[in-house]
Structures are given as structure tokens and as C-alpha cells.
What does this fold into?
Amino acid sequence: MLLGLAIAAYMAAGFLAWLHLTAGPATQHVNIRWTPTVSAAERVRAEQAHGLEEGALVEGRTWLYFVRKRSRADIQQLVTDPRVEDTFHIDREAFRVRLDRPDLSPRARAWLESDRLGQISLTLALVAAFVTWRSWPSLIAMVRRNAYRSAACGTIVAIVAGAAFVLVITASEQIFDATFYAMSNAVSLLSGDRIYRDFFEPGVPLASYTAAMAQLLSGHRLIGEFVRQWLFILAGFGIATHLAIRASGSMRATLTVMGIALTILAVTPIYHHDKLLFFPLMVWMCWRYIDRPTAGRGAACGCVTAIAFLFRHDYGVYLGTASVGAFLLARVALPESRRASAIVREAAAYIVTIAVVLAPWLIAVATTEGLEAYARSRAELFEGTPGSAYASLLHINPIRTFRLPLPASNNDAITWIQQMALLIPVALVTVGLWELWRNGRELDARRNACRLLLAGGFLAIIDVALLRRPSYVVVVAPLTAALSARFLASRLPVVRMTVLMFCALTTMAALIWMRSTNLYRLYKPSELSHSVQITFARLVAYPPDYEFPPFDYLRDCTSPGDHILVTGLTPPHVSYYAQRPIAGGHIRWGRGWRSDPAHEAESLALLERQSVPIAFSTEDPVLDNFKSYPRIHAYLAKYYVPVNGSKGWIMVDTRRRPTGTFGPDRFPCFR
It folds into this structure.
């Protein structure tokens, strides 16, 4: 009872601290207008005296700041300072920072503005610590009764905490275009556009809806999308760690191999979050099914397969193949499962579950685009030549990779990590076949062999399909590391020493790869702390700021009901930072997606119906991206003109009368 109370208090303290740090007064910009007589040197002294940080000139004598000294007395001194002519976002009667959060209820906003949530969080944490201290003897007794389980839980918690630390430290390196792959669809959904009518997602429907939900919960802040992707990654690392413990039975082996995975996480783009979750999750589900095949566990495999398919359609192929493998291997592992009634019941449970989960989506597609047209158009987006990765095993050369001094290029280190990852499924399948042949009459040995065959085969399929270049090894790093723990805990000393040597070399390669990341600068804690603070200020800022003026132009010079025609090489972040839905149905014009006459006519009809004052390209002139769409190209050439000074990257609708201008180049505004 006391332990549960402590856990609840810790969770409440963490939640309140998160609210305070991400949505409280510390994240709110305030405007300060200085009097005309204040010199630059005097302004700097005043900023230091009042705790005004990260100042940015807005216009004239008005500056933008974060307020670090926020007690009632400090705010009163600020607003009564004769050097301060006026303020904005400061309550001059209550003497506190006023939040620009119209999305919050008045009561929630008042609690945040009180700046007391941090103190309440600390109080709850102290209460939780006291309760933990009081319940410590019973906690120790429980741990001793369940020593192995407690050690396993502690190992999982340690690895997940390490993954969270890596994600926070490296967050600044994850704010780039590809991280926002689902965000343009999320913005369209939240603006009221209908999927498959007003816009067309590229085969990631559930990713679009979960991204929209994260934005809704976070008040349209970037932190919402980052937390969404981080939670997937943390869950994936937790499941992978459990797989490592189960495969090896050794906490030390698990910590060793998952430590390598944590190092590689520092260079892993977080847009791979769904792969890092679904691949270990599927192996975990299939192992449970092989251990005891039942209709319920078959249905669980079907549910995971269907959900993964809705996140990205090719995942359904990989996980479906794993499900079939588990279904067949379960017959090998457990002879009584070969009864016809059991086979039919479990297969039916799997198929029916998939049908039920996919039914709403299938109905939505069938009544709009049509299933055949949908499948054909999404198939156009898949690229790559599978099967080339395993050729790199012919060129394993540790001398080239680890020569001294260490090479400036990361390429050899990345290739080494890929080669080690490719060896693991080969080793798993080989050992699985050997154990099945040697100890096939023993039930436990047969189950273990089938689990190894399933994991090795599934991992090999993913490697063939996805490792189109060495750096893509990050998508299988946690699962591969987890499964390799089995060899590090081998009973044969020769095998253990060999695997330990390869682990040491792979750790060196991972350190070489990650030396350009923030994690490599742990020896500079003050610099690292400042970097994290700046990053989180960007993550919680509203409106979101990419520190790129054209995005500010798109947001400030259009109205909330407008759409923006977005194109370019990698433009998924444009719609989010502009906070405007996409026009024409999609953003993949440069790749010629949906360029056949029927789909082009559909996109043109959308452009004609929607309010689209601005067309924007992230690379090359706008019209160059529409060469595959002759009718849309003609429409844009007729009604849109390039903005002076934009090199054709920005075009505006000549049928709209500008209401003002933006920036020193005086771009036309339509708000």
C-alpha cells in the first residue's frame, strides 16, 4: 500500500514538474519596451538585474525575453523600473508572467501562471521519498523473495532510463525535416480537413492520427510530437531488454549488449520510432505464442500486425510473415498443437482480429479513393533494392575499421556495425537448427530452438528489406543487440570470449559513429545543460519556431482558414511550422506522386476549391516541381507569380489583394 502511494506521488510530481518546465512561465516570452533614454550598456545591466535572458529585438525599443526571476517582488521591481516603458505578457496587478495559452481553461492557466507547480512537485517528491524510506524494509524483503524478477525489472528500468537520457541529450539534433513525416497530415486533420477527401496520406494513417492527438494534447507544440516518438522508442527498448534477459538469462550480458544499443541510439533519427517498437514487440508476441499457442495469443499477434500495418503498410508484410513463421514453428515446438481444431481456431482468431482492427480504415478507403487505387498509388512510394546488404559480409576488415589513429570518417565504423548486425540472424538460425537437430526430442530445447529460428528469420527479413545503406542499421540495433545476448551468455568459454571481443569492437565503432553528437560531450556538463535548455525552449515554444524566416512568413501572412501549396525535396515540416494545412492533397509533387490524369484532376479540383494564397518550395522554383502535372503547372503559371527576391521558391495568387508586407524584402501578406 505504502509503495503504491509512493509510486503515485512520484508520478504526480513528475507530471507537475513536466507541466511547469514545458508550459509554465519559464517558457513564456515577454515583451519589454525600454525608454528612449536607455543606452545599450544600461539595457544589458537592467537585463541582468531583472533576470531577463535570451533577448531578441522585435522592433524599435521592444525586446523579447524569458524571465528567470519571477517572484512577486522581482516582477514588481521589473514593472516599476523607470527604465521600463511598457511590458506585454506580464500581469501588472498580480505581478506575474501571463501565459499566451488560449487553448487552456482559465483555471488551468491560473495554476500555471502562479508559478507554484514546481514547488508542489518538489513537495510531492519529498513526501514520496519519505514514504519510500518508511516502506524500505518491506521493499527489501519483497526483492529478496523475488530476486531474479527484481533484477530483471531493475535492468529494464536502467536501460529505459538510459534511453530517455540519450533522447533528451540528443534532442537538438532531431529537429529536422524528416522528423515531421506525419505532421503535415496532422495539421490537416486538426484544421478540419477530411482524410482521403481533402488530403491523401502516403500509407501512414495511424501515424497521422496519433501525431494529431499529440498536437492536440500539447497545445500544438513540438514537444507533443517528440514525446510521442520518444514513448515509442522507450517502450521498444524496454521490450528489447526483456527479450535479451529471456534469451540469455544473464543481467550482465543484457546490460552489455543493450549498452551498445544505447550508444547507437545517440545517432538514431527518432522518426524510426515505430520500427524500434514494433519489431521487438512482434518477436516478443511470437515467442509467447510459440511457448503456448492459443487463440488469444494468436489474436494478440493479429492485433499487433494490424496496428503496425496502419502505422506503415510495409510493416504489415514483415510482421505478417513473422506471424506465419510463429504459427508453423509452434506446431514443431508443441505436437499437441497440430490438431486440426487448434489450427483452425488459432488461425481464425488471427484473421478475424486483423479484419476487425482494419475494418474502419478499409471502409474509409473503399468509400473514398477505392482500395485498388489506394494500393496502386501507395506502392509507387516504396523504393530500394533489397538483398544487397549481406554482400558487405564479404568485406569484413577490423584492421581497416579500428586502425590508429582513428579515422576521421565514420563510414568504416558504420559498415562494421552493419556487418555485426547481419551476422546475428545467421548465427541465430544456425544455432536454432543445430539445437533442433541435436535436442529435438526435449520439449524445452525444441521450444528454444523454434524461438531462435523465429527471431533469426524475422531479423533476416527485416535486414534484407530495410538495410539499403549501412546507416539504416539503427532500425534493428535494439532487437539485434537483445538477441545477441544469448551468445554472450553461452556456456562455452570460447564462444563467450569471441562474442565479448566482437562486442568490444562494436562498442568502439559505435563510439566513433556518435562522436559528432551531444552525447560525446558529457565531459562538458555546463555546455550540455545550456544546449538542452535551449532545445526544450524550442520544443515548448508556441507558435513553433524553426528559426527560418520564410516559415514565419507563411504563418504570419496567411489566415487560419487558408491552405498552403507545399513542395520540394523534403517538405514535411513546412505545414507544421506554418500552422496551415497543405493544399492540393499532398506534398510529394517533386516525386510525381498521383500524377496520372485522374489523380491530377482530383488535386487540381482541390486547388481550385481551397483558399491558397501562397505556394512554397523548399528546394528549386515552385513550377519546376510540377512538370509531371501539366494541368496544375498551367493553373499555377496562369494565376500565380513569383515573389521578388524569392528566386521562384515562393509564388502568390494574383487574384488576392495583399493586405500588408512582411520583412525587409516586403513579401506580400494576405491576412
